[in-house]
Structures are given as structure tokens and as C-alpha cells.
Amino acid sequence: MGRITTTELSWSVKGHRLLDNIEMAVHDGKIVGLLGPNGSGKSTLLRLLAGLRKPDTGTVRYDDTDLSDLGRRAMARRLAVVEQDVSAHHHVNVRQVVELGRTPFRGRFDALTDYDRRIVDEALERTEISDKQHRSWHTLSGGEKQRTQLARALAQEPQEILLDEPTNHLDIRHQLELLDLLTSLDATCVVALHDLNLAARYCDHIVLLDHGEVAASGPPEDVLTPDLIKRVYGVAVLVDREPATGTLRVTYLGTATRTASTRRPAPR
Ligand SMILES: Nc1ncnc2c1ncn2[C@@H]1O[C@H](COP(=O)(O)OP(=O)(O)OP(=O)(O)O)[C@@H](O)[C@H]1O
Fold this sequence. Notes:
about 30% strand; binds adenosine-5'-triphosphate; alpha/beta; transport; 6-stranded mixed beta sheet; 4-stranded antiparallel beta sheet
């Protein structure tokens, strides 16, 4: 398990600040939810955390090491990324996609070891995609592709996982299973989500983004408040606790006037 810390992280495109002064600390084994309206910067932040974009200012640290000092292979051995738009895998089956998760641990021409195969089997089982392991990638449904990508990530045996809206193609059972699975892992997770109730139920901590800035950061009960949700999303909500489980519950009452942000809108 690893710790992820960002300090004064900023990123711009053509003079427009898309992320501004992001301060975030994700502790070992915790699940941090990235929330925020469309275009608020969730995917961009995940890309910076993954080292796929270089920040203009600020740092990303994994444990005590600056991301820029971690080599690509060292990163691939500890960090798994489950992206929103799953990349196309041509002429490969599900199992071969999941086997890619073992690449950082193998030499270029090395065959899979028994250990590799066992880890791949387990990843396929935990994501309930074993029965489709010989199916061609391009024949999968959106949810099956998403579960295969998660299996590839698990096959990496990562210390940290970054997930960009991993539930968006999943039916409700698989949404709950995916988040239960993340909870059961020995890994630190940062997950971009749109569903406030799933975030309330599964996240230890929430970072709420608005126009590339942190509007609020803290435990779900501090961030998922009617005032903040109205201000950031422009939606009136009722927040209470579900009587049987005591879980925080957000009920959408309707759209409301969104408090004007001081931020400039991102470029179109
Ligand atoms: N390379 C780029 N060039 C210009 N604008 C960009 C670029 N990358 C991201 N943006 C803009 O930055 C803003 C944040 O985008 P991002 O994809 O991070 O938002 P998001 O919170 O993940 O949104 P969604 O919920 O819709 O997935 C958007 O307005 C987007 O259009």
C-alpha cells in the first residue's frame, strides 16, 4: 500500500488554468473519491497523478519519492490505472488483456511463470470475467470491458490504483461489487465518481473539484452537504442517513441556481 501526496499542483493549456493549486493526501489503503461536475478536472488530475501529464507547478509524491524520480518501470510495478475510455485492444482475447498486467514484472521475451498465471486467474475470478477469458476483446460489452480493465489492473498487484469513473458501464450489482472489491484490496485507491451515494458509502475521503480547484476535501459527511452540492453542482438535495445502515444518503430534489464561481470557464 502506498501514500499519494500532491502539493500545489497546477496544469494549464494555452494559458488556461485547468487545475489550480491541488493539495491532496491519500493515505495507505484508503479510498479517495474525486467528485465534481463534468469538466471540473477529475480526469486531468488522475492523469497528473499517473505521470501521463507533467504539472506546470507542484509535485506528486508516491510515499516519499517524487513521481519525476520514479522510473517508468518502477511506476508500472506499483501503480495501476483504469481509464475511462478503455483503449482498443486489437486481435487479443480477454485473458491476453489481463496478462498485460504482468508485463512490468517480466523480461520482454520471458514466458509467463506459474505465479503470473495464478495471479491472472485470480484477477479474472475476482472481476467475474473468467467465463469470457477466451472471448475477443472487441466483442465485449462496455461493462465487460470495464471489468477486464479492472482485472488487468489487479493482475499488476498494485500498491495504488487510479480509476476514472470505473462504474459508468456497470449494472448496479457490478457497481457494488467493484467498490466492495476496491475496499477489500491492500491498495490505495483514487477513484473519480459521479454517483454521490456510492461515494458516500465507499469513500474514506472525498475531494470535490470545481473548475479545477478543490472546493472541499474531507470525510463524506463534511463534503456532501446541501450547501456545497448546490454551490458546485447546482442541484438542491436532501442529505440524511439511510435508516437501516446509517449510510449517508443524498436525495436529488431538483436543479437550483448554481452559485457563480470566481473561476474562468475552461476553454471549449
Ligand atoms: N488537452 C486539453 N486541451 C484543452 N482542454 C482540455 C484538455 N484536457 C482537458 N481539457 C479541459 O479541461 C477541463 C477538465 O477536463 P476533465 O476531463 O479533467 O474533466 P472531468 O472532471 O474528468 O469531466 P467529466 O466528468 O466530464 O469526465 C474540461 O473543460 C476539458 O475540456
